[in-house]
Design a protein that fits this description.
Length: 256
């Protein structure tokens, strides 16, 4: 069943005193409810632009995005974003950062604290509720960001290169933890990454986006069993999948 539908999207940025840049041109995509879909493509091809359209922070010059049949008119609590830069408020504790969205929605203090504490436990940060962001490692900050995004129980989780700033070992650990959270919650996830391996490991399908102006070049199904473990990355099937994604992406990198 189609849950997110993008049709014929065109987005052009017109900065002052500089040439216009068309980020997306004729971009279309359909995503099922509960699907984990990753987007890979050259830098500047419009992947993050598409996430911002789904989030409701941008409007397309042409085309539209619908969620569950309804056009997106702006930001709403049914969608949440996890950013690469963590985006935590440095003057708030871990608990207060996770509570932020609930606080903005007017949830009473006791209820929002209860929900935040549950999620802090879910992402493995029990005992760090009163710590501030500067006291946390990169991986811990990203766990806080994930918990904060999940706090309002969104239907759609948008993730814009969330693990790019982490070291390789922490990144692998966060991928495993994200899959565990997703397998429990079955949120619809749109995940932007530059890592072919990450996309193949996490996803139900991988969308290869063309060089700018971005369009949906190829959607590649991931037919690997779940739940997934690290050892799966050593299998011939996994390497064949990575090669297929790379072949589709390589042509776009050459012209970007």
């Amino acid at each position: 069943m189609v849950y997110i539908q993008a049709r014929d999207l065109v987005v052009t940025f017109r900065p002052a005193n500089r040439p216009a840049i068309t980020a997306l041109q004729g971009f279309g995509l359909e995503v099922a409810r509960g699907e984990f879909l990753s987007l890979v493509g050259p830098s500047g091809c419009g992947k993050s632009t598409f996430l911002n359209l789904v989030l409701g922070l941008l409007r397309a010059d042409a085309g539209e995005v619908r969620i569950d049949g309804r056009p997106i008119a702006g930001p709403d609590s049914d969608r949440a974003m996890v950013f690469q830069e963590f985006g935590l408020l440095p003057w708030r504790t871990v608990l207060a950062n996770v509570e932020l969205g609930l606080e903005l929605k007017g949830v009473p203090p006791a209820a929002r604290q209860r929900r935040a504490l549950e999620l802090i436990q879910t992402v493995g940060l029990s005992g760090f509720e009163r710590h501030y962001p500067h006291e946390l490692s990169g991986g811990m900050k990203q766990r806080v960001g994930l918990a904060r995004a999940l706090a309002t129980d969104p239907e759609v989780l948008l993730m814009d290169e969330p693990f790019a700033a982490l070291d390789a070992q922490t990144r692998d650990l966060m991928q495993v933890e994200l899959l565990q959270v997703w397998e429990r919650s079955k949120k619809t996830v749109l995940f932007v990454t530059h890592s072919i391996e990450e996309a193949a490991y996490l996803s139900d399908r991988v969308l290869v986006v063309s060089a700018r102006p971005g369009r949906a070049k190829e959607v590649i199904p991931v037919r690997l069993p779940r739940p997934r473990d690290y050892e799966m990355r050593l299998s011939p099937e996994f390497n064949e999948l990575k090669l297929r994604i790379w072949k589709a992406l390589k042509e776009e990198l050459a012209v970007s």
